[in-house]
Amino acid sequence: MQDPSITILLLSLLIFQLSAQSNYSNTIFFSSKTSYNISKPHFQVYLKETNQSTNGIATLNQPPSQCKAKQLSLLVRHGTRYPSDGDVEKIDNIIAKLQNLDLKAPFVKVKDWNNTFTLEQESLLADAGKEEMKSIASKYTSQFPNLFSSAMSKSGSENVEIISSEKERTESSAKAFVDGVSEEITVDVMNLNSKINIRNDLIRFYDFCTEYIDVVDSDAAQEKSLIEFHKFIAGPEMQEAAKRVSAEASLTNDEDLFTTEELEIIWLLCGFERAMKGADYDSPWCYPITIEDSLVLEYANDIETYWLSAYGYKINYQQSCPLFSNIVDNFQQIIASSSAPAVSLYFGHSGTVLPIYSLLGLFDDGKPLNASNFSHNKNGRKLRSSIIGPFAANIGFSLYECEEGVQTSHPDWPEKLESHMLQIMVNEQVVQLPFTDKVAVTLSKFEKQYDWYTSQCDFDKICKNDNPTSTSPGMTDRKLAQYIAVCVSFLAIYML
């Protein structure tokens, strides 16, 4: 007879799954402006519903006993930030419009709403974003205690690599992450903060890629690259959503009805408020927005993401190869020398993280997101930025040193171990790469699969740049130092 405690445990797991699934389908998300704390609890259900998990409930990141963590490279999008200057202007405009209209309760409360989103704070990291960073840091430090202790603690070597873009929100995210680590182990916060290396060329590669700017991102290019996005904005789904929200706010005159742009800023205001004040915060901006409205607005934003940062154009992800090469180089460095950084941290943007996903082949629906396939993609698409690319989205590459040739019974790892194995984690959760049904791969297979992005990564050639950048052809500061060291060694030998 089965142990009653096991039966209770299984029933509890089933109830948890059903509850999580129900919450997932009844939660309002905000695309890339979704709080990490709103998005993260739904990640496992999302993996299951989009058939990206081996066993329905995502596997915990526990390697076989014959493996120990050797190196962690972690790319993190900045945490929750304040609205951009463009959004601040739109917020001011919608507030001014609503002040003169007769609104229905409870939406009428927006007239008394205290606007704290100012130009002085535009795009700066919010306190909620700092807390997201500290929480993520705490969890990764707990998951990889030996790596963080050896790389960042006072008693260790403090041999860590921290790279950020020049933006305040990324550098402040890096500092908040260090604060989070300091809550788990003893570190010299000031010294670690002084190690933050500003590398726009590596993190904001899209600012240096002529081909990307000319074909995808410039205002002129977006007339073509975002044609599906503009079609959807002008299409029936968005127009109906604007009408529904207008009716919910009790707007009846045609000249008062919300435009699709005004609809989006109301939705984003709801998102910013919940991101900064809590997932259940009773913001008046959320009152007229339904789940159906949110799904339409999400899809519009995901069409934009698809064509600007993901699979829409090859250059979107090919241009990220210097960053990817830098990450892969970390593995070879730690294998060659124990003095190499055991932890490498990168703090970037949505436009940094999404291309890396696409380079790896993650979250690929196989067909483009366009204006005509909303009903097909409404619920089951893989490229859903609310889940994979919220504020503080992160992707980790964990290298393990294993007993080579050992057979393992771990259900989600290859049966036979090689000396070095690799796992990929998205938002703290291990995921499968598209070429395997396991959650770990051999380093040799990984490097072979993505060889083009390392061996053929000539950034200036890929981007058709007239003037060379420091990212091309992958001569990073670390590689340059190694090259100089080799030259000095040969010179010393010669002098003898």
Supply database-style keywords.
496 residues, alpha/beta, eight-stranded mixed sheet, disordered C terminus
Structural overview:
It is a single chain. With 496 residues, this protein is of the alpha/beta class. Helices cover 49% and strands 9% of the residues. It has 24 helices and eight strands. The chain has helices at residues 4-25, 36-39, 43-49, 85-99, 127-143, 145-152, 168-182, 189-194, 200-203, 210-217, 219-225, 227-233, 236-248, 260-277, 291-309, 314-318, 321-336, 350-360, 374-377, 385-388, 443-449, 452-455, 459-463, 477-495; strands spanning 67-77, 160-164, 196-198, 343-348, 394-402, 420-426, 429-431, 441-442. Strands 1, 2, 3, 4, 5, 6, 7 and 8 form an eight-stranded mixed β-sheet that branches. A hairpin with a 2-residue loop joins strand 6 and strand 7. Helix 12 (227-233) packs antiparallel against helix 15 (291-309). The protein is globular, with a radius of gyration of 24 Å. The termini are far apart. 46% of the residues are buried. Residues 12-22, 55-60 and 472-495 have low confidence and may be disordered.
